[in-house]
TrEMBL record:
Protein name (database record): DYW domain-containing protein
Phylogenetic placement of the source organism: Eukaryota, Viridiplantae, Streptophyta, Embryophyta, Tracheophyta
Compositionally biased intervals (Low complexity): 1-17
Mapped PPR repeat ranges: 107-137, 139-173, 242-276, 346-381, 548-582
Entry-linked InterPro entries: DYW_dom, E_motif, PPR_At4g14850-like_plant, PPR_rpt, TPR-like_helical_dom_sf
Domain DYW span(s) in chain numbering: 763-855
The family this protein is said to belong to: Belongs to the PPR family. PCMP-H subfamily.
DNA sequence: GTAGGGTTAG
């Protein structure tokens, strides 16, 4: 692990002081003291201040005082202006203290400058202090400066209140006041007040004459109301536009999900004769990132090279980000090149490249290494965004020790209470199943926003998540809900197959207006599919408009998992006809449809089509699907040859697939080899040992079974306990093998006993070879009837009525005897039984299963 | 002396 240490932060103002103090003060007549006049010194001072040499200007000021040529207020004013322009708070403070020492009477102009200085440098308290001490000296500029001070320092409420106070005081607000106050109203909390101020503004005529007021209105409609149409109307009506207003429209379109329009606006701007600057290119490049359009991005890249703007840090950052987001193959090469070519780096550029590595996945170590370089070589202090990305990297790496170390550094630098750092910390913990720590991090947050809630909801189990949603999120109108909240809730319900809960969330969605959201529709499709109600999923799919590749992939995966290979493949053809490009996940779904239905020829056909038609190179998952297709159909030797012919070394997943095929076809020899390969690659994976021991057990080789069990014990590997669950009236009931904890256990076992007698009459014979212990036949039968899926089935039968299907869920693969027994039960009782196991769905009806006993 | 545009967490 890299050991991390933070460099001592160096403030930019200290650097500047050191550099200038070693310089000689350029002063033409310095040896001839008789030529020093008040006017010449003042000219000197103004010149230094104008070109930004504040240190020299202050020296000149000192010189004036020493020569008894007392500087007047305009001299100080010039200096303050220079400090405001360069945001130099230290020098500004120095000048302020010199002003106080000078005993001059401060006038309105100087005091207004001081307000502006402190406001722009973030010291709003000092600005406030000066404003309230002004009394009679206050003029409309003081009011404007204070209104915008509050607005730009995030005190929207105070800014709006001050605007109305000013009106009450009898001052007429000017364009500066209007734009600052409307800006303060731009967040949704105060957007209605913004409209009131807008009405007031229309009476004044500033709307027609001032570009900044127009810009503020664009923000009011976009940020306050999500209303791009009205913002566009304001923009179109603006009599005067400049490159800032164009850039703002481009930025807002890009940020609010219309990157295509943003790019169009950019070209319109150029055609209309406005010159794009670094901000414009930066925004337009962000729109390209959003669009994922590499060609337009590259076109802009060559443009910024021609104009020389590529050396700008903002533009450089956007280029790095664009190449990271547009890399269709997840490669960071181009992004890294753009980063390495930048002449100067700042926090933002380091953070952008680190974030790129984290978001493209699989490059987390590079991200951590860059962080180390940022601290040592770059001598740059990380900010809250840097920490947010780094914590995400640690979450992906499952390296909580490093994560906690990095979090410690954010604490030292004072970022730990910043929302996005805390939120990242929560999701780092939820991703690593550390719910207790996630909750702690959540409680620690000073201000919890929707992202915080969503991060936690995502990690909680479905019940808890739903509780949090009902009790806190929905009741607290300040938090609001968004698509992420619903997506997390839906995936929570889907993971345990709680269709009742899923339906409740669906009902809430219809009320909330999110049901037309593409991500939500997609989440609904998978929720219904994963809960066993594929037809409901298909209805959602049919009723939505604007389906994307994820919508199609979700429904195809659904049909494939349910064993409806024909419908899955038909939908795949429809997808191709409608012009949607499949991705690698779509092909996993298509190939798994083939494997679940034993369609060997189709499987080969699609495997070859992937690259030929869509330039998608098969990944490990696709090879695993092909091994599955061959292995399940009994062509174990061909599957083995196929593995040996792969262009890269097969991983544990591929061998695990072969091993389960060996179990179905009782091939102990090949199974042994597969298990060895898995254990070689993943020595701590209990599933390999379990599968191998099952293989020996079904071949009756009990000695070997015992040997494996011993091996597992030595490594202290624990087999995942098999369990099944069923949702009855929105409550999930979970059962383990031989479970008697359920309040209705007696009733359940009575039903099970009666059931066995009934189906034995119809020809059911318990398949005792599925019992994995070496015991007497009769005992084996007893063990068999304690399987969790049978208990869940019996409970389902006594608690629901026909024609409601009984939906059972199991964390492992369903046992062969249980599967057979359920077929008999479906025939004897007329009930439809749907089972979701770790691999697929079984629809069992009238003694038949949709898997054709092939799973 | 007073105003506007770029990176971000789920």
């Amino acid at each position: 692990m890299i050991s991390l240490s933070l460099p001592t932060p160096v403030s930019p103002s200290t650097l500047q002081l050191n550099r200038h103090s070693s310089h000689k003060i350029p002063f033409p007549g310095r040896h001839n003291s008789t030529s020093i006049t008040f006017e010449s010194l003042k000219t000197q001072l103004i010149h230094h201040a104008d070109v930004g040499h504040i240190q020299e200007a202050v020296s000149t000021l000192d010189l004036m005082s020493r020569a008894n040529l007392t500087p007047d207020l305009t001299a100080y004013s010039v200096l303050l202006k220079s400090c405001i322009r360069t945001r130099n708070l230290d020098m500004g403070r120095l000048i302020h203290s010199k002003l106080t020492e000078s005993k001059l009477d401060l006038d309105t102009v100087v005091l207004n400058s001081l307000i502006s200085l402190y406001s722009k440098c973030g010291d709003w308290r000092k600005a406030e202090e000066i404003f309230s001490s002004m009394g009679e000296l206050r003029d409309f500029v003081s009011w404007s400066a204070m209104i915008s001070c509050y607005a730009s320092n995030g005190f929207n409420r105070e800014s709006i209140l001050m605007f109305f106070e000013m009106v009450k005081f009898g001052e007429r607000p000017n364009q500066y006041c209007f734009s600052a106050a409307i800006q303060a109203c731009s967040n949704s909390e105060y957007s209605r007040i913004g409209i009131v101020i807008f009405g007031f503004l229309l009476k004044t005529g500033y709307f027609e004459s001032d570009v900044c007021v127009g810009c503020a209105l664009i923000d009011l409609f976009t940020k306050g109301f999500d209303d791009l149409v009205s913002a566009r109307k304001v923009f179109d009506k603006m009599p005067e536009r400049n490159s800032v207003s164009w850039t703002q429209m481009i930025t807002r379109f890009s940020q609010m999900g219309s990157p295509r329009d943003a790019v169009d606006l950019f070209f319109n701007m150029v055609i209309s004769g406005f010159i794009p600057d670094r901000f414009t290119f930066s925004s337009c490049l962000s729109a390209c990132s959003e669009l994922g359009s590499l060609p337009i991005g590259q076109q802009l890249h060559s443009w910024v090279i021609k104009t020389g703007l590529c050396w700008d840090v903002c533009v450089g950052c956007s280029l790095v980000d664009m190449y990271a987001k547009c890399a269709s193959d997840g490669s960071m090469d181009n992004s890294r090149k753009a980063f390495d070519r930048m002449p100067n780096h700042n926090v933002m550029s380091w953070t952008t490249i680190i974030t790129g590595y984290v978001q493209n996945g699989g490059h987390e170590n590079e991200a951590i290494e860059l962080y180390y370089r940022m601290l040592t070589e770059g001598k740059v202090k990380p900010n809250h965004f840097t920490f947010a990305s780094l914590l995400k990297a640690c979450g992906n790496l499952f390296d909580l020790r490093l994560g906690q170390q990095i979090y410690g550094q954010s604490v030292k630098l004072g970022f730990s209470s910043v929302n996005c750092v805390g939120n990242s910390l929560i999701s780092m913990y939820t991703k690593n199943d550390r719910i207790v720590d996630a909750r702690k991090a959540f409680e620690f947050l000073f201000e919890k926003n929707l992202v915080s809630y969503n991060a936690l909801v995502d990690g909680l189990d479905s019940d808890e998540a739903f509780k949090l949603f009902n009790n806190q999120i929905e009741k607290n109108t300040n938090i609001g809900v968004d698509a992420f909240t619903f997506a997390s809730l839906l995936s929570g319900a889907a993971s345990i197959g709680a269709v009742g809960k899923g339906e409740q969330i669906h009902a809430r969605l219809l009320k909330s207006g999110f049901e037309s959201n593409l991500c939500i529709s997609n989440a609904l499709i998978s929720m219904y599919a994963r809960c066993g109600n594929i037809e409901a999923g298909f209805r959602v799919f049919n009723e939505m408009y604007g389906r994307n590749v994820i919508s199609w992939t979700s429904i195809i995966t659904g049909f494939a998992k349910h064993g409806f290979a024909k419908r899955a493949l038909e939908l795949f053809k429809c997808m191709l006809n409608s012009g949607i490009e499949p991705n690698e996940v779509t092909y996993v779904a298509v190939l798994s449809a083939c494997s679940h239905a034993g369609l060997i020829d189709e499987g080969w056909m699609y495997f070859n089509l992937m690259y030929k038609a869509h330039r998608i190179r098969p990944r490990m998952e696709h090879y695993a699907c092909m091994v599955d297709i061959l292995g399940r159909s009994g062509f174990l030797d061909r599957a083995m040859l196929f593995i040996e012919s792969m262009p890269f070394t097969a991983n544990a997943l591929v061998w695990r697939t072969l091993l389960s095929a060996c179990r179905i076809h009782n091939n102990t020899e090949l199974g042994k080899k597969a298990a060895e390969m898995i254990i070689e690659r993943d020595p701590n994976d209990p599933t390999a040992y379990v599968l191998l021991s099952n293989l020996y057990a079904s071949a009756g080789q009990w000695e070997n079974v015992a040997k494996i069990r011993r091996g597992m014990k030595e490594r202290s590997l624990v087999k995942e306990a098999g369990c099944s669950w069923i949702e009855i009236e929105n409550k999930v009931h979970k059962f383990y093998v031989g479970d008697t904890k359920h309040p209705e256990a007696r009733h359940i076992y009575k039903e099970l006993d009666e059931l066995v007698v009934r189906i034995k009459e119809k020809g059911y014979v318990p398949a005792t070879n599925f019992v994995l212990h070496e015991v007497e036949e009769e005992l084996k039968e007893q063990y068999l009837f304690q399987h969790s899926e049978k208990i869940a089935l019996a409970y389902g039968l006594i608690s629901t009525r026909n024609p409601k299907p009984i939906r059972i869920f199991k964390n492992l693969r369903v046992c062969g005897d249980c599967h057979n027994m359920m077929k008999y039960v479906s025939a004897a009782t007329g009930r439809e039984i749907v089972v979701r196991d770790s691999n697929r769905f079984h629809h069992i009806k009238d003694g038949m299963c949709s898997c054709n006993d092939y799973w």
